[in-house]
Protein 1
Amino acid sequence: MSEFGLRLDRFGLGAPAIKPKDDMGGAAGFPKNIETSPGQKSFVEFLQESLNSVNEVQLDADKAAQSFAKGENIQLHEVLVAMEKADVALRTVTAFRNKLVEAYQEIMRMPV
């Protein structure tokens, strides 16, 4: 939980829950021995960085709103731009999560 009370996992994104598992060793249950090309990130690393980026945008918008509410030197349009960026980022991540869940469900429906 952040100092402003924002938790990504309340949206079902699960960012705080992505940790290495003892049985397989990799993040989110993926084996550590999956190799990527030199200079290329794994999907899990990309996803973690994206979620962290969205979280930072959310926190920035929250700080801007709090600063404006306290009467600090910040313009209203700056607050609105920060909040709109946070909204777009959250909608994008939510749409991405929905597509991932949909793809997983489709795979699970396939006959073996």
Protein 2
Amino acid sequence: MLPGLSPGGKNLTNQCIAISLKADGTKRLIFLVGHYGTIGLEMGLSVAIGLFIGIVLDRYLGTKPWMALIFLILGVVAGFRALFRVVKEIQKQDRPANKGKE
């Protein structure tokens, strides 16, 4: 007989449940790391793309700093919008898990 196992197999069942819960926790961790990792990427790219478009328009229209500033601000707004969208999605995914605990 294996150590830690009772003849009824109750410890084996508990071990299987613990492994299942651990796997669910790992899936949740991967989900959160993926979503939180995209926040910085989306914010940085939004600002960079907005600034790039503004600089190109400034060169084309001859309005030196104004288009760059306007599109930089629009890029920051788009970045924060993406941040709020990701946080809202994470909270939505978290609600069903917490409903059973209340």
